[in-house]
Amino acid sequence: MNKKIAVIGAGNVGATTAMYLAEANFADVVMVDIIEGVPQGKGLDLTQAGPVRGYNASVLGSNKMADIKGADIVIMTAGLPRKPGMSREDLLNKNADIIKSVALAIKKYAPKSTVIVISNPLDLMTFHMQKVTGFPKNRVLGQAGVLDSTRMRTFISMELGVAMTDIQAMVLGGHGDTMVPLPRYTTVAGIPIKELIPADRIKAIAQRTAVGGGEIVKLLKTGSAYYAPAAAAVDMCRAIFNDEKKVLPASAYLTGQYGIKDIYIGVPVVLGANGVEKILELKLTKGESDSLKQSAKTYKEHLKIMGYK
Ligand code: APR
Fold first, then answer.
1. 175 flagged as catalytic
2. How far apart, in whole angstroms, are the C-alpha atoms of residue 55 and residue 53?
3. Mind listing the pLDDT tens digit for each residue in 84-96?
4. Quick check: CB of 77 below 6 Å from ligand 1?
5. For ligand 1, is residue 226 a contact (CB within 6 Å)?
6. What mean pLDDT comes out for the span 99-106?
7. C-beta separation of 269 from 252 below 8 A
């Protein structure tokens, strides 16, 4: 295949991302991890599934960052996952060091790539990735909004007993407990959910969405979610490869939109061949706007801890 996607990390999120990418069959995949043998073994195993599953994409496992050379897209999943009782911010310093070393290698070996970050705390790690690579801001983005909104879509489908794929949901803000689900912009086949679900149930669904990752951490006990995060990242890859101009929520760099600047945070974007091609500004209520700004304020404080002014 003439396109190449690099997945950094061959753990739960990385290997699942590689699997969904291979199944999508639009590029060869190289998966890099520091643990010897694991990326090679998982890569070979995934490639051997191809004849049965009907794909020709190969998955090369490696311990060398040099193998990402020439990648069109890099998906960053390396880093520690949460354990029960941990917030995403508890991962801050450890994952920041990992991001830095990987970002330097991406800059060296895949200088033209678009980078999608999944490592947590998401919005801060995406900011760090952009700063260290020095890539244009439209070519570095974070995967969170598609995940958060797919969780909300799932909960609405469970509530109404309707097809999940008929539901469109919009979630803004940080990927964490400060996220801002937007029921006003959430519909079932175009019908606003407030016409179908009572207000108290909508509130409960929005709240379950906001802590959706934590619900899974509690159940798994030894790590965090990986199927839906990986699926969300592959959806973003497809939008970039096919220049789809797809509208979806992602962590993007704001330059004054929503009254916020100089941070990465979840907003609706148009995703195409040039990465984040546009940021859409929705009209927010005062409460929604205040929550978004509160999310931004918290991130600015965390960025200071990371050494950014
Ligand atoms: N380069 C490459 N791989 C690395 C590096 C590095 N510098 N440092 C760590 N890794 C690898 C680990 O060896 C491990 O295989 O990253 C992988 C992480 O895998 P898991 O522990 O299974 O974690 P996972 O569930 O995949 O989550 C990864 O995604 O959703 C986020 O919060 C989550 O930050 C976490 C990340």
1. yes
2. 6
3. 888 887 888 889 9
4. yes
5. yes
6. 98
7. yes
* Alpha-carbon span 141 to 307, nearest angstrom: 21
Residue type, 170: M
Residues 236-252 pLDDT 10s: 999 999 999 999 999 99
Mutate to test the pocket of ligand 1, among 98, 129, 227 (most ligand atoms within 8 A of CB): 98
Mean pLDDT over 14-40 rounds to 97
**Residue 115 pLDDT grade (very low, low, confident, very high; cuts 50, 70, 90):** very high
17-20 long-range Cβ contacts below 8 angstroms, 24+ apart: 17/75, 17/77, 17/118, 17/230, 17/233, 17/234, 18/42, 18/43, 18/46, 18/59, 19/46, 19/49, 19/230, 20/230, 20/231, 20/234
Of 132, 175, 202, 269, which is the active-site residue?
175
Set out the domains of the chain in order of their start, with CATH numbers: 4-142 (3.40.50.720), 145-305 (3.90.110.10)
Q: Report the percent of the chain where pLDDT is more than 70.
A: 100
